[in-house]
Design a protein that fits this description.
extended, mainly alpha
Length: 225
Amino acid sequence: DKGVLTETSKVPTADFVCTGIEKWIDAKGTRRLLVLLDECDNWLTIDDKNGFLLTQQIRRLMDATQRKCKFVFAGLVSVRRWQISNNSPIPHISSGAITVGALPARDAYKLVQEPMRCLGIELSHNQILKILTFTNNHASLIQVVCQRIVKTISTKPISVVSATRTISDDDLHQLLHSEDLLNETANRFRMTIELNPQYSVISYVVALKSLQNLQRGFEPESYSL
């Protein structure tokens, strides 16, 4: 769609694609190509079994274009594992892994407050803190909660004085404890941990032991996983 590959091939091999990208970049000195690849865990695992043939092609392409063509691998634990592995070409093409997790408190607060204000919705300081406590500052969960807030108050009357909408503390409490939202949160958690069976087992064992020892606290060093 961007006109990077102008030639066609019945069998678009890696060599064909790489050559086309090189020609496109060389045609104009200011051209750059950034390729963002998500959900790369399984792909890197399969490429490992093939001697990292495709990843080596990517490395050669980046070198041939003097890094005017770059790739970003996004994923979960497997991507991180290959990035620090001496048997992987990833460290040779990577400038370092960036771990994306819970947001810093200030950024999480802004992620709730600023988009809502743009929609004419004003949340109190305490309400924002309740949302952050529920979501543990995770951006995806913040978005889920805020979407439900917008839907909940979309039919509320607009204040004539401030031209803003608000949500009551009771409505927010009911929303945060609704079965629908709790199920959505649990499903997102399961989607993450179940991508790796080992992490899934550890997570469930930790949760179970925590419940069993709720009164005296959980001491992970006292259990063998």
